[in-house]
Predict the 3D structure of the following.
Amino acid sequence: MSITYTSAINPQTNLTEPSTGSCVKTPVSSNSFKDHVKESVVDEYKRKHPDHARHVEQQVKAGRAVREKYGNAIPTENMTMAEYQAYFYALLDTIPYDSTRVNDTTTLSISDEGWEQMRKDPDYEAWILGYFVEDRAVRNPFFGWGHNDGSIIFERFGASIEEHRGDGFSKSIFKGNDPDDDEEDKEDWWIKRHRRMKKLLKEQVERDQKEDAARRSALQQEYARQQYISRQRHHNFLTAGTPNSPDVPLPQNPLTSVTAFTAYDNILGLFSSNITTLQLLS
């Protein structure tokens, strides 16, 4: 079992032992010290929450028992804050844990206002001590069933009971998975990887097919454009007798172009047939 005490005065400092250094004491009279406390925050809480009053009173009694047994003979009115913190931590270390909680780790944080309230309000100090008496006595029902890693617990206290917050979680979450689980995870990973690669290949094939279709369409359009230019030149030759640039528009009547082009083809065919006849006769 381990416990770390974190003072809110200096959050970077972890206190695990009472301070042994010399501290400057500021004497405060007993009467003036008590005048700072008009009403204990414990009594205020019980008045506001009567349904919890009995439970809170039991915790206060348990804390008073710890103080009477280990620290009642030590006056706290004239202590500096550093001395009081060391005194309180020493009392807290006397509270035992249940044997099933030996692997728990507790981090305690108390605000500046909380320390001041504890020092001037003995009942509030007793309530915090009693809270840990009750908490540390709780058994872990799963201890010995494979759940022996313990828990990490964070306890935060302010200047009143309402400000207390406690959180905890099992240390087992930091452990690796079972070997069988690892094998299943690896298998799942390979299956997911195979599916992902298959999907990527399919997307690549579809992308290539679209690119090929776009290239074929562009080539067909270019071929049609070249055919148009060639026919336009033939048309200009037959109608005007002079070649024209490729960008000359088609004539207004497309039938004229088709007729002229047909006539031109017929003349070429007739000329070639006459040449063939002469070759055969010779």
